[in-house]
Each structure stands twice: as C-alpha cells, then as structure tokens.
Design a protein that fits this description.
The chain is mostly helical. The strands form three sheets. Strands 3, 4, 5, 6, 7 and 8 form a six-stranded mixed beta sheet that branches. A three-stranded mixed beta sheet has the order 9-10-11, with no helix packed on it. The longest helix has 34 residues. The protein is elongated and about 110 Å long. The N terminus and C terminus are likely disordered.
Length: 749
Amino acid sequence: PLAPLGDAVGLMPPPPVHVEPLMPAGPRQRRGGAMAFLLDIAPIFGWLRDYPVRSALAHDISGGVTLGCILIGQSLAHAKLCGVELIIGPYSCMLGPVLYAVFGTCIHSSIGTGALICLLVGEVLVEHGDSVEERSRIAPFLTILVGVILTLMGVCRLSGLVRFLSRPALSGFITASALLAMLSQVSPMLGLPDSAGSIQKVLLHQPERLLAVKWPTLLLSAVATGYLLSAKRLKQHPRLKPLGDFKELVLLGLGAAFCAAWDPPGLSQAECVEHPLCVKVVGRIEPGLPHAHWPRVGAGDWGLIHSMLPGACLVALVAFLTSFAGAKKFGLEDGYQIKPFNELIAIGMCNVGGALLGAVPTSIGNTRMGIARQCGVQSQLGANVFVSIFIALAVQFFTPCLFYIPMCALNAIILIGSSHMLEFAHAGYLLEFARHKEFGRDGRMDVLVWIVGFVSTLFLGAFKGIISAVVLSLLIIVLQVVNPHIALLGRQQEPPQSGVPHQPPRFRHRWVNMRGQRASGGLVATAVEEEPGVLVFRFEGPLFYANVDQLQEWLEAEELRRIEESPVDYEFKAIIFSAIAVPFLDTTAIGALQTMIRSYADRNVLFLIANTFANTRRIVAETLGADQRRALREDLRPRLASCTTVDDFVELVHANRALSKERPRPLIRTTSSLLSLASLASLNATPPKGTLADRQWPLQRRPFSLACDRTPDAEMGRFTASTPALLSLARPISPRDRAAAGRARPFDR
C-alpha cells in the first residue's frame, strides 16, 4: 500500500507480482543432536542464514512500515476495548512480534492486538478491576496466564483441544461478542459520560440522558464511521489507495487536527467532559519506551490470578484457534508448512514476553496477514521484526502527537472492526443446510449450537456463552456416537456401460441408501429395490459398547417391519452388514456380533459382514469368521473367504437357501405386557378351531402376538401357569373380526 508514496520519495520499491516463500515447503535435511532440537524449537536459525538480503530486504522494510502504521491505530482502539490505558496497545506490539519471528513458522503472520481477543480480555478485566488504572495493573497477570497456558499446550502437544470449539459454536459466540462490543461504543460516540453506561441501559432505564448528547461528538463520530465504511471504495482508485489502506491512521490524524482547532483552549480533561461543545480526546500520555519488568505480585494478587484462570483458558484457546486457522490458510496457499507445535510455543512466548512491558494478550491478525502478502513481505522480518522496530520508534518520538486524538474516533474504529466479525451469514448458511432432508438432523443440531452460543453469550457473557455452546456440542457428539445413522440399502439399477456387451449382472447395480437417494431434481434417479428376503444395511460410525445395543434394536425393528408388511409366504433369509463405514470395533461390539450371528443361525437366518477393510477386516476374520462359516451349509463354507462385497454375500445367501431344507423362523413381536403365543409351540398346543389365532397358525407362516394390556399382572401370571388357561384367551371370530383380520396383525384377547 505504500508503493505510490515510496516511488515518489525513492525509499521503497513496488511489491513484486509473485513472491516465493523463503521457508521451504518440505523439511530440511535432518540433523541430529542439539542442532536438530534447536531448529525444531526456533526455526529462525534455519532460514535466517539463507535470507536473501538483496532481493528481500527492501520489500520486508516497506511491508514492516506499512503494517506498523496500521497497527498503531488499531492497537490504540483495541486498548480502549480492553478498558486499559491507551498506550498499552502499542506497548503490546513491541516485544511479541520479535519473539514470534524466533519461534513461529508462518511467514505472513502479523502479531498484535486483535478485536476478538480484546473483547474477551475486556470482559475478564472488567470483572476484576473497577478503574482504568486497576485494569492496566492486572492486565499483565492475564497476559502471563495466557502465555503459560499456550506454551504448556505446545510442550504437551495439546493442539487438538481447540477442535472442541466447533465452527457453529464459535460463530454464534463471535457474533454475540461483536454485537455487544458494537453496542458498547454507541454511548461514547453520542458524547454521553461514562457514568451513563451502555446504550441499552440508557434506552431502557434512563432515556432522559439522551438530551445530554454532544452534537460535535455525534457529528464527528458519524463522519468517522462514514469514512471507515467507504475505505474499500477508496482502495479502487490508485491515487486514493493510501487513504483506504491506512484508514485508521488517517482518521486519527485528521481527528487530532480537528480537535486541536475545535476544542476550547485551557480546559482540563474533567472540564472538557462537562463542556457541551468539547470533544473528548486522549490527553497526555507519558512519552518514551516502557521499562521491562515482571509484574509485581502483591499479597492479594494470588487470589486474583486464581479467579482469572478460567477466563485466561478461554482467551488462550480462542487466540490459538483464530491464529492457527489464518496461518494454516496462508501456508496452504503459498506452499510452506505450518506446525501447530511451533505456533503454540510462538504465541505463548509472545504473551509471556509481552507481559514484561505490561501488554495485553496478543494473537495473529488475519487482516494484517493479507496486507503483508500484498506488500510483498518475504519473511518474518518484514511481518514482525521491522513492525516492532517501527512501533518502538513511533512511541519514543511521536507520543505527544497522540494528545488530541478524539476518543470517538477510536470508538468508530472499534464499531466498524466489530461489525466485520458478525457472522449472521453463517447462521443463514446453517439454516439453508438444515432444510435439506438428507442432512436435516445434523443441520438442525448445528443451528441449535449456533443459537445457544449466540443467546448465552448475549445474556450471560463471553465465558459462560462459549462454555454453554461447547458443552452442547459435546453432548451432540455423544448422542451422534450413541445413536449413529444406519442406512437401509437397496439395489439401484444402472444402464449397462457402453462397449461392455456381456457385463455381469452384479456390476449393473449399486447399493444405495433407500431413504436418502435422490437426484438433483428431487426425484429418485432410478428404481431402488430391497433384496427379497435379505436385509442389507450400512452402519456409519464406530461400533462399540455405547451403540451396539442401538444396532440390535434397529435390526429387530426392521425385521418385524419387513415380516408384517410382506405376504404370508415371505421368508426372512439373511442380514448383510456393510461395514465400509466402521473404522473400528471394540470387544463389547465383537461379543454382541458373535451373539447375534449365533442367535440368527439358530433361527436359520444368516448374519454376514461385508465390505470390511484394514483393521476391521482382520478383526472380523479372526473373531467372527468361524461363526459365520458354521451358519452356512457345509458345501458353501469355503466360498466365505472369497466374498467381500454385498453382491458376493447376496449370491451366497441365495445359494445357501437353495441347499437348506429347513425354513427360517421369523421374529415374534412382544412387549412388556404382551404374552406371545410362541409358548404354545413349545407346548405342542393348537388353538381352538374357528378362532383368530387359528387363522394365524402355524407359527412359521405368520408372526402374531396376543394383546393383554388390560390384563392384571397377577391374572397374567396365573394364565401362564397352564396351557388351557392360556388357550382360553382366544375367542371365536365375529363378523367384525373377519373384516378386520387382514388389516390388524395384533388383536384383542
């Protein structure tokens, strides 16, 4: 962005059209011992010795100056968002970028203050400090906690913890936090005193305070907001491009010039607040660089540190999640490796070192990363080191220039910056996703997580909001694992391939989900049919102790549905389990599958497992193969080893049924207070002639049950004691029963 100005004064060349990353995409030649460990911890010792000074230094310097100018304005606004002294914002951008250049792996990462992190930091500090001075004193404690947490996560390789922050939960949380930050800036932009509180409080409880609006402050805030909103359009004009690129710095400079000419001279800060025409300014800031020292911990500060620990954990997780996501994106696009271990160590050390200067927690700025790439930055010297040097020089020599910066201009910067974090568009995407029938359940769960994250953050605060969304996300994960999706598969016919005249029948169809296979127009593409007498299903997810009972219940329900909806002579021959989506089995699942294979074999029904792979295939072959072979006819047992696909097992089922003389026995539907007539078969009893039970006999032709819901348990126990008493439950068929006999399988006693 500084290229036009650089050409005019002859200080900096224009950025190159294409920049090759200085850090290689692949690992360097391995070295043993301490040098290899040092290169893993601090990559700067690997790429700095190969730094191309002649071709890269000028671009890094120009990029560093550009990022420094942008970061000065942003850091002042972010410091106000944190509720600390404004000069702490630039202080936070001095030592941290240098430490990231030593330990980090992303070339374009720009370390500094960020709007989202400062939102969280401000909420944590407000709970523990009533004044700006007190919050400025305790801010380094929070920064150290964040740095230590991130560093320990890196040492322990715990980067996977951030995966528990799902995208919908984080989106709802960010949107509510940004909305709260925007609302908190409205009252200062109207010129209301700090005692008025938020605009919500003013409108609901003290609307008369709106009469105290300062019109100069309101007009200046409106002009500042309009300028920031039009910055994108200014970037489209080559001559006005610097006004769009350095919008924060230009706004603060023009606002300071206006206040210096407008505000009445000789007024103190307290008098300026009460004056109706005075615009509140930053005021005097102590010039010079900060003195590096560890924060002094008093006798009562240990309890304060302990109470800030939950908030520090949240800030640390969000800081790493947002930073690593941006770094990973740029690394993939430009072809260099981003290591989570190094990023955790780097961001952690940035915050630990920044606490020496009284800094607030910092992270990688995604917007500044894009600017660094546009400026032609080729190494972390340009993205961080030269930025730190520029900010230190500005704080040392230009601090008095900050006196007349209007506070409402900083509020406008926060307002516009927070508006860019609103993610209502993502909520709309989730709603659109939830409307699809194929993904309805998952989409609705994501919408629910987004709403919980948004509402709980809006009314309960940032920490309770994100915790609520994360807990709900984990509960949904548990429910999805315990109750996984089970797809009922059917054959979908496909036209024969051209050029293959003698294509085998087994290759002319595929097995698809019967309840979710739809074409783009919303209609079924081709006919999907169930295999007669064979239940084919696909279990989607790991099969272990928490969901194996769900599988058994689903199989029983599907078998009964098929039997009850089929003709009288229907035979339920086999169940084929497509395990292509099962990554692993535990011992409980293996034992349950063994029990199911044997119990189905006792009823002359085959239970076969197809489409196994990798470790699942080995487990099935070693633990379940023998039971599957015993259920087959002796002549067909050698064929089991060559069967892999569903088509192979379907052919095996039909071949086995052709050789078997005994018919499969169907499953009988029962409930807790239903007495099945299956016990009659074990007693070799026959129902009386002319009863409804007689029409449904013999047992192997039709499953049926005897409804005794209105029978007391004691009476039922006496009935089961003798066969004659049980037979007395069956009554003769009436004309009404004859009409309803074909419609209702269960019947009253």
